[in-house]
Specification:
alpha/beta, 4-stranded mixed sheet
Length: 199
Amino acid sequence: MLTIHFAEASPETAVLVDGAVIAAVGPYEDLAALRPEARVRQWPGILTPGLLNPYGPELLEGMYHPDPREAAGFGTEPIPGERAQRIFRMDASRRGASARRGVQRLLAHGTVAVAGELRGQAAADAVRRAGLAVGRRPEKLPGGPSFSPTPLILLPALQPGAPARFAVFDVPDRASLVGRGASTCVATVIGGRLVYRAR
């Protein structure tokens, strides 16, 4: 199925997706004229190649991501450090579910790739099933683990023939994305599939 994704603040960077692959990149009007039968998804903000988060192990193995049904006991925010490890020791099966919820948080922040050595099978499986790419970790990591790390690491420019992997942020330009962070994500696409959409 052919789909054109374009964002209102960056119509010159529309993407034509054919299945799991990028078929073309260019101005929205050109792609729409080229393939008028394609489904169109219009988004606010800017369309980008998506983000690499270098804190894969810290976010997916070093934190516990509570189930919403556990809010009374654990709250709703990720739990770091020794408390997370105590939770995992109480019930090892929580590792897989926590990693999957952590991956969902990454997707909601426009992350399409992670870096860092994942030591546990649960986190590695969650990353693989989501279709997240695994990239190289920078030698120096500024700040601490975050779903919106500083600085944001954008992947290389989108190219025809590459996997259909990108994210859209509801900001007017890249400078605003840097200033406001990855929580402005409104859509994440991996393997041609819309894996996150803001409500």
